[in-house]
Every structure is written in structure tokens, then in C-alpha cells.
């Protein structure tokens, strides 16, 4: 028969064992549930405004924790800037007369001897990249470097807005109502009478932006690129050659043989822009008017094409003087 002291010791030991066992079971359950809890927490950090984009991407086959993490990293509200500026531009074009643009209209301050000299020096520094582009796609170095100057000042100005490409395009894709760009409404005289026009055009631009969000997300995930490393134009164009994301898969090319397409590298940007021009009709021996027409397929602006051709002329003039 046990005495009282022995019985107390056994009771204490049993109690300690049961507490220890309870803690073990608790932590085992916690470890089992962590992935679920982590996913729930991640989803909770995604602002509601981005949920329609996540759902649409999932429907199109782009989903998973990595995609959710991208959207969780976005600010809680879209920026009004890209959609606002685009609708203001379309509004003015539609309802206010503009002067016709002639062939002698250029971007201010671009077609100068000093800029031609900068382009010439850049061509010499990256001679291999420009010759490779010319060999593959018949685009003269003067045209390629002039295009890079107009687009990004030879890579020195890779963005004209603080937002990155992902935030810019995601914001455009969810801005579908005039009140989503409320800060831009005062810039459009008489907009109150044209709200249906605005909504129609905003929806069209939002659908276009979504068509760019999808390939951008795919490209970033495939290459391990953070949105912070994708500076862009006001409408989401990226790299030295300012490609929209959907054009990277179509026309992007690995120029330096490292197995990646990185449009922030001169070798890849140069051959990629040349490929784009070639696929849109650039060939040796084109007339000036045909060259102009092909350049307008890169950017639908007469001033843009005028400026590239005129700057290329200035570069050739420097080359002739050097000889």
C-alpha cells in the first residue's frame, strides 16, 4: 500500500506529464495550421480594390501565393495619374480642335548637334550591340540610337512617374468610373455632360491595361523580378526601349546570350527594338515616308517619328564630317 507522500508525488508527476503532453499537442496543431494561417493573413493584407484583378487573373490561369504576394505589396488605393492623364488627353483630342502636325515638327530640344554627339558616343561605346541589331534586322545604328534617345535619353531616364509598371497598370485596370479619377475632372471642361463618353473610354482603357498586367505578372514571376525594379512610363512601358509588357514575349530578344530578356540591358534592348521595327516592315532601302510609317507603329505619333528621323540625320552628318 502506498503512503500519502508517494501518492502525492505520483499525482504531481502525472499532472506534469499531462501538461507537457497538452503543450506538445498544441504546438503540433499550430505547426499544422501555419500554412493556412499564413495564406489567410496574406490574403487579408491585399486591399479590396485589387481583388477583382486577382480573380480575373486566376480565371485566366495566373494564380498562386506568388501572385497574391505581388498584390499584397500594392498600396491600398490605385493611383489616379495614368488613367486620369490618358482620359484628359483623349477628351481634349475628341472635343477640342488641334492644329495639324507637319513633317518639320519635332520634340523640343531633342534634334541638336549636342544630342547627336551623345548618340554617336553611345553608339561607339556599345558598337557590338548596334551592329548585332543591324545584322539581324537591318535597322541602322543611327535609327536605333535615335529611338533610344527619344525614349529614355539612352537609358538615363527610365521613368517619368514615381509609380512602377505594376502599380501603374494595375491602377489603370481598376479605374472604370469617372469618380475614380476625381482629381482630373476639373481639367476637362464640360465633362458633366459627357460622363457616358468618359465611362465608355475608361472601361476600354481599363481592359487594355488588364491585357498588360497579365504578361507583366508572368514576366516578373518567371524572372524573379520585383515590381520595384520595373520603373516605367506613365502608361507602363519599361526598359531602355520602352516596351509594353505584352511586347516583351512577342519581340523581346536575348542580345547578349545570357539566357534572359532584360530590356534594361543595352544588348537586349537594342536587338529587341530592331526586331520590333523589322516585324512591322523595316527593311533596307525603304523610302523616307516608309521609314516614317514604320516608326509610327512603334509610337503612334508623327512628332515621334519626325524626331527620330531628324536626329538620325544629325548623327549621320557628324559621321560624315568625322571622315
Please describe the structure with a list of short key phrases separated by commas or semicolons.
mainly alpha; 13 helices; globular; disordered N terminus
Secondary structure topology:
Elements lengths: L3 H41 L6 H9 L5 H8 L8 H15 L17 H13 L1 H11 L3 H12 L12 H10 L20 H29 L21 H7 L14 H14 L8 H11 L3 H21 L1
Helix pairs in contact: 1-3, 4-9, 5-7, 5-13, 6-11, 7-13, 8-9, 9-10, 12-13
What report would you give on this structure?
This protein has 323 residues and is mainly α. It folds into 2 domains: 1-44; 81-322, no CATH class. Helix content is 62%, strand content 0%. It is built from 13 helices and no strands. α4 (81-95) crosses α9 (195-223) and α5 packs across α7. It starts with a helix and ends with a helix. Mean pLDDT is 89; it is low at 1-15 and 23-44.
The computed structural class is mainly alpha
Number of helices: 13
Amount of beta strand: under 5%
Amount of helix: 55-70%
Averaged pLDDT: 89
The run of helices and strands is: HHHHHHHHHHHHH
- For the record, the count of structural domains works out to 2
Overall geometric form: globular
- Evaluate the radius of gyration: 28 Å
Number of strands: 0
Identify low-pLDDT runs.
Answer: 1-15, 23-44
Distance between the termini: 116 Å
Describe the largest sheet: none
Brief summary:
The protein has 323 residues and is mainly alpha-helical. Helices cover 62% and strands 0% of the residues.
Amino acid at each position: 500500500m502506498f503512503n500519502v507522500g508517494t501518492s502525492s508525488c505520483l499525482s504531481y508527476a502525472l499532472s506534469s506529464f499531462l501538461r507537457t503532453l497538452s503543450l506538445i499537442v498544441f504546438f503540433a496543431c499550430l505547426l499544422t495550421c501555419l500554412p493556412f494561417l499564413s495564406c489567410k493573413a496574406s490574403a487579408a493584407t491585399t486591399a479590396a480594390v485589387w481583388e477583382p484583378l486577382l480573380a480575373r487573373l486566376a480565371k485566366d490561369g495566373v494564380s498562386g501565393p506568388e501572385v497574391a504576394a505581388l498584390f499584397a505589396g500594392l498600396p491600398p488605393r490605385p493611383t489616379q495619374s495614368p488613367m486620369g492623364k490618358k482620359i484628359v488627353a483623349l477628351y481634349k483630342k475628341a472635343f477640342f480642335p488641334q492644329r495639324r502636325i507637319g513633317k518639320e515638327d519635332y520634340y523640343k530640344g531633342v534634334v541638336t548637334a549636342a544630342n547627336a554627339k551623345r548618340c554617336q558616343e553611345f553608339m561607339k561605346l556599345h558598337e557590338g550591340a548596334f551592329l548585332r541589331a543591324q545584322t539581324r534586322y537591318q535597322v541602322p545604328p543611327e535609327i536605333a540610337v535615335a529611338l533610344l534617345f527619344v525614349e529614355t535619353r539612352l537609358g538615363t531616364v527610365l521613368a517619368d512617374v514615381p509609380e512602377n509598371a505594376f502599380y501603374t497598370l494595375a491602377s489603370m485596370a481598376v479605374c472604370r468610373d469617372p469618380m475614380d479619377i476625381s482629381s482630373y475632372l476639373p481639367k476637362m471642361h464640360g465633362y458633366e455632360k459627357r460622363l457616358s463618353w468618359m465611362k465608355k473610354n475608361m472601361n476600354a482603357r481599363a481592359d487594355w491595361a488588364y491585357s498588360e498586367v497579365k504578361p507583366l505578372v508572368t514576366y516578373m514571376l518567371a524572372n524573379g523580378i520585383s515590381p520595384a525594379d520595373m520603373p516605367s512610363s506613365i502608361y507602363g512601358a519599361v526598359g531602355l526601349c520602352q516596351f509594353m509588357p505584352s511586347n516583351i514575349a512577342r519581340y523581346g530578344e536575348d542580345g547578349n546570350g545570357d539566357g534572359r530578356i532584360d530590356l534594361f540591358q543595352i544588348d537586349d534592348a537594342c536587338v529587341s527594338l530592331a526586331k520590333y521595327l523589322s516585324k512591322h516592315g523595316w527593311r533596307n532601302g525603304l523610302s523616307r515616308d516608309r521609314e516614317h510609317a514604320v516608326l509610327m507603329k512603334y509610337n503612334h505619333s508623327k512628332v515621334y517619328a519626325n524626331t527620330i528621323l531628324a536626329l538620325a540625320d544629325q548623327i549621320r552628318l557628324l559621321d560624315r564630317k568625322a571622315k
